[in-house]
Amino acid sequence: MPYISVGDGHKLYYELHGATTGKPCVVLHGGPGGGCEQTVLKFFDLQRWRILLFDQRGCGKSRPYGELRANTTWHLVEDIEILRKTVMMTEQWTVFGGSWGSTLALAYATRYPRCISAMILRGIYLGESWENDWMYTPWGAARMRPQEWQAFEKGSGGKCRTTRSCLKNYRDRLLAKNRKTRKAAVRAWNAWESSLSRLESQTSRESSWPLALLENHYFQHNCWLKPGQLLHAAQKMTFPVHIIQGRWDLICPPAAAFALADALPHATLILTQAGHSAFDAATAKMLRRSTDSLMNNTANFC
User: Fold this and answer.
1) What is the widest separation between alpha-carbon atoms in the chain?
2) Where are the domains of the chain?
3) DSSP H helical ranges for the chain
4) Nearest to 260 by CA among 114, 136, 105, 46
C-alpha cells in the first residue's frame, strides 16, 4: 500500500485514481477522523481528472492509528502541501472538500493560495464557536432531534449544558482505561452525528473510534483557528470557489455557507434540497455538475 512519511512519526496512506495526465485534484475527507472513501469518485469524470485521496493523520489506514500528538489543523495543511509536491507533482490543483474537509481546504488556502486553481466545497464548517454550540449544547440541533440528543447526553456521562463541558466529558470517556466505557462513548458520539447526517434513509454506519476521538480533539481546541480567521482570509482568495450546501443540513447549518459566499470574491453558492451528506441525491448531482463545469471551464453549473 502507498504511504508517505510526513514527519512527527506520521505516515499517510494515499490513493491515486483517474487519468495519469488528468486535471489534478485533492479530496479532503470529513471528520476530522473520517478517512477517505472511494465513493467520492462518482463526482468526477475519471477519464479527465487525476484524483488524490488520502487518510489524514491518525485515521483510516494512516499510522499511528488514533494518534493525537502532532495532529492539528496546521499539521494537516503542511501534509497537503507535501502531497502536492511529492505525490501529485503539480504546480496547481483543484481542492475538493466537504464538512471538515471544507474547513481544511480553506485553512490550506490561507497558506498556499497560489497552489489552488479552484475549490469545490460542500457543507461548510468555519470552526466558529456558534457552530460547535449548535452541535453540542441543548439549544441547537438538539431541538431538532430531542430523542437522539438525550441518548448523546447520556453517553457523555454528565450534562451537556455548554460545548466545553460536553467535549470534556466525552474526552474523558473516549480516553478512559475501561474498554466498555470507551466503546459506549464512541457509539453515542457517532450515533448523534449519524442521526443528523442525512435526510434520506441510510444504514447505520459502524462506530469509528478515530472519528469520535479526533473530532473531540479538534473541537476542544477550536480547530486551532482564531475567531473569523477563515472568513477574513477568504476575502483575498482570487480563484473560483463552488459552494454546494444542503438547505436542511443539521450538522453544518447554511448560515456558514452564506457567510463564506459573501466573503469570497469569486464564489458560486448553490443550495440543494438535501441534508449534510454528499450522497443525498440533490447534492450529489450538483457536485458532479460542478466538477464537470470546472473541467469545461464554464462558470454556470446550475
Assistant:
1) 55
2) 3-127+225-295, 130-222
3) 73-83, 100-111, 129-136, 146-155, 163-174, 179-197, 209-220, 229-234, 255-263, 281-295
4) 105
pLDDT of 300 over the 70 cut: no
Nearest partner of 262 among 282, 243, 287, 290, judged by Cα: 243
Q: For residue 117, how many other CB atoms are within 10 A of its CB?
A: 17
User: What would the pLDDT profile of 55-102 be if each residue is shown by its tens digit?
Assistant: 999 999 999 999 999 999 999 999 999 999 999 999 999 999 999 999
Average pLDDT over residues 246-257: 97
Residues in the chain: 302
The residue assigned the cell 466498555 is: 180
CA-wise closest residue to 121 among 10, 230, 7: 230
Res. 206 pLDDT band, cuts 50 70 90: low
- What totals of helices (H) and strands (E) does the chain contain, helices first? 10, 8
- 25 and 93 in contact (C-beta within 8 Å)? yes
Q: Mind giving me the DSSP string for 73-114?
A: HHHHHHHHHHHIIIII--S-EEEEEETHHHHHHHHHHHH-GG
3-127+225-295 belongs to which homologous superfamily? Answer: Alpha/Beta hydrolase fold, catalytic domain (3.40.50.1820)
Distance CA 115, CA 94 (A): 9
Instruction: Enumerate the active-site residues.
Output: 99, 249, 276
End-to-end CA, the chain: 39
Distance CA 36, CA 18 (A): 16
